[in-house]
Amino acid sequence: MTGPIDTLFINLCMVVALSYLISLTYTRWKVVEDDWRLKVARSLMAALCAVLLLMHGLKFQETIILDLKLVPILLIVLRYGPLYGLLSSLPLLMVRLTVLQDLPPQLFLTGYTLFMLTLLGVHKSITQDVKPYLRACALSLFAYHLPWAFSPRRAELLLVMLPSVLFNMLGFAIAMMVIRSRILYLKATHHLRTEAQTDPLTGIYNRRQFEMDMPGLNPGDSLLLLDLDHFKQVNDRHGHQTGDRVLQEFTALLQSCTRNRDRVYRIGGEEFLVVLRAVTPAGSARIAERIRSQVAAHAFEAVGQLTVSGGWCMLQQDRAVEDTLQQADHFLYQAKQQGRNQMCCCLDPQQALPSLE
Prior knowledge:
Blueprint: H1 4-23, H2 36-55, E1 58-60, E2 64-66, H3 70-80, H4 82-98, H5 105-122, H6 130-145, H7 154-197, E3 205-206, H8 207-213, E4 222-228, H9 231-238, H10 240-257, E5 263-266, E6 271-276, H11 281-297, E7 299-300, E8 304-305, E9 308-314, H12 321-337, E10 343-346
Parallel strand pairs: 3-5, 9-10
Antiparallel strand pairs: 1-2, 4-6, 4-9, 5-6, 7-8
């Protein structure tokens, strides 16, 4: 025979387990961008949780049930709003009105309506902080129990009200902790990954990310290696802070000259790499020339005019990405040797590399 304490403990364990299952549906940071399919899936999971918690409630005086059925509904409404809250509520309402009838239907429906209306009134003001969630939880739970004061059985109902509110708040806090810990974990790993794969100054990808992207490159892609001309003189004359701003401006120019599917990397001090995806040689030449002309026409803050040199090569079926990158580097060197402010390329994959002598 299960005692009251055991039943309450089982309810809390169910909240932890079911909250953990819901938390596993969060697979990435930026959860506010979740699409409607994930929201529907979580709403249905919350509905199942609510029904299970209702069926395993603790009975008082054989008629009044103390349970945590409202906890999953609270989570969904406060997170996603009324539409998904209604979706998660429907199975609970059906079971409560047809299977378990510990309260008169009109009393339950009135309390549940007040519960939902209270949540609708506060859910837009919810922030990422925990306190607003707990305040909303307390207000909505008291609203749910308010009709009990007008019931003929109000004496016995009010006796259970405070334990019910406190028990549900405890369950809600536990569920929040479980899901929040998962989100914080995803946030931390996202930030660590971002720091490892992006350049902190310009915000674009770094060499490590390019090395990770290399297996995904295909013949028909092009590697464009760029280097700002005489950039060392900028640092020597104007200081490194000005040099940093120049690099940031140059990055913005690169991004404006490339397409959405292309990727820009900073792989050295003033050395950048652009991966042009699914492009023809003529298209590579156009983009390279666009970058060169845009940089030459741009007036950099506190510096004025600067130029850029570049070398690019098309990826070939029988040539490794590393070899193509080395070839682009040779053509960058050739552009420097020939006077800078120009783009050199290899249209013939069998063309010999320029001499470094």
